[in-house]
Amino acid sequence: MSLVRVDHVSFGYTANRRILDDVSLDIAQGDTIGLVGESGSGKTTLLRLLLGLARPDSGTITFDGKPLEPGNGAFMREFRRQAQVVFQDPYSSLDPRQTIQSIIAEPLRSLKIAGDHAKMVGNALDAVGLDRDVGTRFPHQFSGGQRQRIAIARAIVPGPRLLLADEAVSALDLTTRIRIVDLLAGLSKTMSLLFVSHDIGVVAALCRRIVILEKGRIVEAGDTAAVLANPQHPYTQRLLASVPRLNLNEVSS
Amino acid sequence: MTALLSLENLSVHAGSKPLVSNLSFSLNRGERLGLIGESGSGKSLTSLAATGLLPAGLSASGSAILAGKQVIGAPDRELNQLRGTAVAIIFQEPLTALDPLMRVGKQVAEPLARRAQRDGTPFSGTALDQAVLALLDEVALPDPQRIAKSYPHELSGGQRQRIAIAMALACKPDLLIADEPTTALDVTTQAEILSLLDRLVRTRNMALLFISHDLPVVANTVESVVVLRQGETVETGNVADVFGNPRHDYTKSLLAAARRLDDAMEGRA
Predict the structure, then answer these.
(1) What class has domain B5-266?
(2) pLDDT 10s digits, A219-231
(3) No. of H helices and E strands in chain B?
(4) pTM greater than 0.80 (yes/no)
(5) Which of B215, B219, B260 sits opposite A178 (nearest CB)?
(6) How far is A205 from chain B (nearest CA, A)?
(7) Which of A36, A49, B141, B159 has the most CB atoms around its CB within 10 Å?
């Protein structure tokens, strides 16, 4: 069954300009979906709606069968526990004055989750491949890739069923990017993943399904391999044709 | 023929810490060279050292000969003669490279007028306006009249980068340095800007020093590459040879990562 259902959602920050136009999207339990689009396509806005940070002008978003109610505190607390997010910039998304232990435990505190926080943080550090003894250190002591692991640990510590990632590997070097993709691929075995990105290569490596967004409309969606092998919409075709390839045969000829 | 740019054992230090170590390469008219590496590899510092633009606190040693003049240790007064004439740079982020309070036509006019004056054929008024519009047309901006009157914030990222390229071209440089010129752009815009750069470098017979971390972009843009890691040169050569048959482990790991995304897109993963 679908964990998240976006049903004919439209949205604009101002009355005369629509950012999202009649968007429908299902995220099934355990699914990995890549949401691809260029700047201004509405990717991040859709993510904001999914997080309950903005309300659709029309249409509905349901989580686990229940409509998102940004005004309902009790509902949102439970929702936040189940849906967590990782942002693009690992340098601005971690509080420089908190220790890693404190940063990762933050959702446990703010969502008032009971239990042994130290142990839960330790488990999260294990899951993202960091040593448990990093807890006493501060963000500036880590590289970009390590910081993104910390941000992912913070997202998974409350045990979410849905992980939303907004360009979560775009700011990283190529080799680091691949390692974080591998980490997310491993985590996606135990939770649903919506991966927002402009990088089709990364989406191809990580996501079973792909959704192509252009100017606030979904122009194409489906099985990633099928869409990439045989894009139907002219925009998808243009997008794929624009991605530079290594294609060494052409270069050496 | 002497090289336009020739680096020999160029090093950049911050205090005693080496940031770029003993880098050597040379670039002739019409040649296109890629500098590749991940963050902290010294790619951008190399271009800044070669043009005498290193920030205070960093020091360069070795030799960097640009259009026959030694850059290392030269005073700004001398280097200003080279900047714009011998070399122009396009940076990654067109929004910060442009003055937000000046119409872009005027920003392009500035280097145009300066270069014309230097050549001994100063022009102004209508002639200058015409030259600006011709240049905007050359970088394939639609409706140059309207664009010239716009401010940077009124243009898209791709249009801004075309303005930055127009400003660089206004100098009629022999060497164009492009430092991650498409990294901040959407992929369809990137494809347009890359083909624009390719066309301009060919028709004007410039040398191109192309700095990027993106291997597929580099593979499609330059003829030869220098692979940097933490300021050390790990491998140099023809781009097809280096990418087709990398010898150094670091180059291999970069290519393996790039190829994995390529393969995933082709459905081979």
Answers:
(1) alpha beta
(2) 999 999 999 999 9
(3) 11, 10
(4) yes
(5) B260
(6) 5
(7) A36
